[in-house]
Amino acid sequence: MRRWVNFLPFAFWCYLAFNLFNLQILKHQSYSIRAKNQHEQKVRLVARRGNIYDRNGRPLAVSIKAYSIYAVTKYVRNLNQTAMKLAQLGLGPYRELVRKLKTKRFFWVKMKVDKELATKVKELHLPGIGVVDDYLRFYPQKRYLKDLIGNVSSDNRGLSGLEFQFDSILKGRDGFAVFQKKPSGRGYPYPHYPMLEPECGGDLYLTLDLDLQILLYETLSRAVDRYRADRAAGVIIEPGTGKVLALVNINGDRCHNSVISDEFEPGSTFKIVTLAAALIEGHRLDEIVDVSGGRLKVGGHLIHDFRDYGRLDLKGVFVHSSNVGAVKIGRRVRREIFFQTARALGFGNLTGIHLPGEAKGKIYRPREMKRLRYANNCFGQGVTVTLLQLTNAYAAIAASGKLYRPYVVARIVGGETRYTFRPFLIRRSLTPEICHQISEVLAAVVEEGTGRRARNRLIKICGKTGTAQKAGPGGYLPGRIITTFVGYFPKQEPDYVIGIMLDEPKQGSWASQITAPVFGEIVAGMAKIPGMVGDSYAYAQ
Q1: pTM listed for this prediction
Q2: How far apart are CA 479 and CA 18, in angstroms?
Q3: What total number of domains does the chain contain?
Q4: For 512-530, what is each residue's pLDDT tens digit?
Q5: Are 521 and 219 in contact (CB under 8 A)?
Q6: Which residues lie below 8 Å from residue 300, measured CB to CB, with a gap of 6+?
Q7: Can you give the residue ranges of the Penicillin-binding protein dimerisation domain (predicted)?
Q8: 393-429: per-residue pLDDT in tens?
Q9: Is the dihedral of CA 440, 444, 447, 452 positive or negative?
């Protein structure tokens, strides 16, 4: 018995020593972290997201100082009273706040609030309720640019458009600060505690001109109403550089960049490929093509013109947009040359623009071009393009055959980081001589052909109309069309290339009646903007 009495104190001290060793040595780090968390609070310091400007420095997307309110429920003392006071400030329904305070460890009461509301919350001194600095993304010209600029999530991450594509540059780097906790759970700065200042995101300066963007948007919006179209799209490019000066999508409430993402059959605007291929093969603009009757049967299918044009020269075939003539000219061109010309102008490939969701369209290789398919391709049926591709192909012709990669970001500026995007020449697609001949034809289209309603009496315009049936799963859809017009001006040393598209207009049947006059409106509007087209091209009423 005495042995046990002597042993028990020894066992007790051994047990105590073991526990002290376990707590202070083996589990020191774990308990140290837990103790630290009880007395310290790490708070994220939100970086200001970079702004986006047009080419003249006008803001298109900016970050405005805001505040976010959070709840750490384990520090909330009076749950019902806290919920009531927050509800009285309009921060949520009382019952919903009670539910969250009971079931969640942490939640955002409300994000992106103004300074006045944040101050009111701070003055309540509610245990467990805190306010942190934040930023609200604001788009001053959202109506005109929502599809291009895109948007961000509640935590300022890019979700679409340029906000998504350049998120890594715009978002910056968040910092943090460590605060000492009061018994109430609120934090306060403490000397020598670690802190990392946030690094602001870089700013984007675009190639876009806000005046042109608004003009293009408003003109296409009126056209959608006037012709009762489902939607519309348009783009303006500077030939010789590839700068995108305006890019518009009229999709109702739908956020979608049709200019780069939607593929469609271009119709007669694609005939520049047939014309260019014929000129490459050595054919002349004064060659005669017999289109008498206005009908041509190919592989059991009938191809027809708007009317019987009789005999036309090669130039006249394109001026009057004869489908029969385009097919007959195509028969004089090797299919390999037709395919190579289409590829050289950028069809069937991505343009490489720095925007998400670009489609590349579809053109067929020579071995895939059976008799009927090739005939259809010669007048723009059976191939698919995007409006950006189509407009960029015309930009190559306007630039004497130089095909440039289109781009929308001119430069990035942020802290020590500065980067300027330069024009990128993809290839020389056609010779200057061939481009000059095509320009002569396109100028005649506007002066005396299907594009007459696009004319401007002081500005020489080159352009082409396009009317195409819409294709469905079972074939072409009766009465449903897409109308396009692509053109550039002035004819000598063009400054602008404009491509527009109206989808399923219910008023009018041809691009000559629909998109040609809309193009003319855009040119007239541009001439009224000071300094846009130069004094020698001033528009007269």
Answers
A1: 0.85
A2: 89
A3: 2
A4: 999 999 999 999 999 999 8
A5: yes
A6: 372
A7: 46-186
A8: 999 999 999 999 999 999 999 866 688 999 999 999 9
A9: negative
